[in-house]
């Protein structure tokens, strides 16, 4: 049981760092630009398809990852210029409708370009295999590398947000956007930087998960709901909140799905415990969100309006 707990805890941490990469961009976009972007999950999907394409063309995962990053920058800049820039002054309802339409268009475009069959990305040889943890317990090297990469990105974002001029503008924009604009900062340029940064992080998450999961259309929708939960729990506009919220949501979701049915067997018969456990497990994340919002309505690190 202890080995199972450690294994699922590591799986939760891995899912957490991936959720953080997506949620960090989403919380900055909403906190600074005041834009509700339902198409953020599309960027996660696009990142997976880009690395699948570049890895297939070059025959190397590392070259595919390297080429994916500038392509993600280009995708972010194009979407910001063509779509998002026209939504800044619009209502949240207009933003929801426009970005939902973008989701539909992006999914259809992906089907036209890559087809409907799932794609696979080969795992790099250097990161294949497993490492022993304790006793007979082993854990895949690639998943450990994903955790390390996510933590490194989180550290880089923390340094950028707290110790650089761009980070100062981001924090100021999240606090009082109109004052930043009045001080002479090019707000459109700042918004372009914020959205492109979020796009790159989401694409990076998709690229990192591609060797583990199959790459297919619609893969961004399933993760988008959890990402919004992470943003709400952590507090809108807070990178620190997004990191802690992502880990909380992922660990609760992972451990709840595995240990919920096991614990219910103490009071129910095995078949009923399995069925009830599968029903209750998806609810745990939302129960966690409700509890946190009851105690802190602005989220863990959000600021009250």
UniProtKB/TrEMBL annotation:
Q: How does it sit in the membrane?
A: Multi-pass membrane protein
Stored InterPro entries: ABC_transp_permease, BCAA_transport_permease
Transmembrane helix listed as a keyword: yes
Query: Which keywords accompany this UniProt record?
Result: Amino-acid transport, Cell membrane, Membrane, Transmembrane, Transmembrane helix, Transport
GO-annotated molecular function: transmembrane transporter activity
Tell me which Gene Ontology terms the entry assigns under biological process: amino acid transport
- The main location class comes to membrane
- Localisation per UniProt entry: Cell membrane
TM spans (from-to): 12-31, 38-57, 63-84, 96-114, 141-161, 190-213, 219-236, 243-264, 276-295
Q: Does the keyword Cell membrane apply?
A: yes
GO cellular component term, pick one: plasma membrane
Extract the PANTHER family matched here: ABC TRANSPORTER ATP-BINDING PROTEIN, BRANCHED-CHAIN AMINO ACID TRANSPORT SYSTEM PERMEASE PROTEIN LIVH
Q: Which family does it belong to?
A: Belongs to the binding-protein-dependent transport system permease family. LivHM subfamily.
- Write down what this protein is called: Branched-chain amino acid ABC transporter permease
Q: Which organism is it from?
A: Thalassococcus profundi
């Amino acid at each position: 049981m202890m080995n199972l707990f450690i294994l699922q805890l590591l799986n939760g941490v891995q899912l957490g760092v991936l959720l953080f990469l997506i949620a960090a961009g989403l919380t900055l976009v909403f906190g600074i630009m005041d834009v509700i972007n339902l198409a953020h999950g599309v960027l996660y999907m696009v990142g997976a398809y880009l690395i699948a394409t570049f890895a297939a063309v070059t025959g190397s995962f590392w070259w595919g990852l390297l080429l994916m990053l500038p392509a993600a920058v280009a995708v972010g800049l194009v979407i910001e210029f063509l779509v998002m820039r026209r939504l800044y002054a619009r209502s949240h309802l207009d933003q929801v409708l426009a970005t939902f339409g973008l989701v539909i268009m992006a999914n259809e475009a992906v089907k036209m370009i890559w087809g409907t069959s799932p794609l696979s990305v080969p795992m790099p040889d250097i990161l294949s295999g497993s490492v022993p943890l304790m006793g007979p317990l082993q854990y895949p090297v690639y998943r450990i590398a994903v955790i390390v990469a996510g933590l490194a990105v989180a550290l880089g974002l923390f340094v950028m947000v707290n110790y650089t001029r761009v980070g100062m503008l981001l924090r100021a924009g999240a606090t009082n956007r109109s004052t930043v604009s009045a001080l002479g900062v090019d707000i459109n340029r700042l918004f372009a930087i914020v959205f492109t940064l979020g796009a790159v992080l989401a694409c990076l998450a998709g690229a990192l998960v591609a060797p583990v999961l199959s790459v297919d259309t619609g893969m961004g929708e399933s993760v988008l709901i959890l990402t919004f939960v992470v943003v709400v729990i952590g507090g809108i506009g807070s990178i620190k909140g997004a990191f802690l919220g992502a880990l909380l949501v992922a660990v609760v979701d992972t451990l709840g799905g595995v240990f919920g049915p096991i614990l219910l067997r103490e009071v129910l018969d095995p078949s009923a415990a399995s069925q009830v456990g599968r029903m209750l497990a998806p609810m745990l994340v939302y129960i966690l969100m409700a509890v946190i919002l009851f105690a802190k309505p602005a989220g863990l690190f959000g600021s009250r309006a």
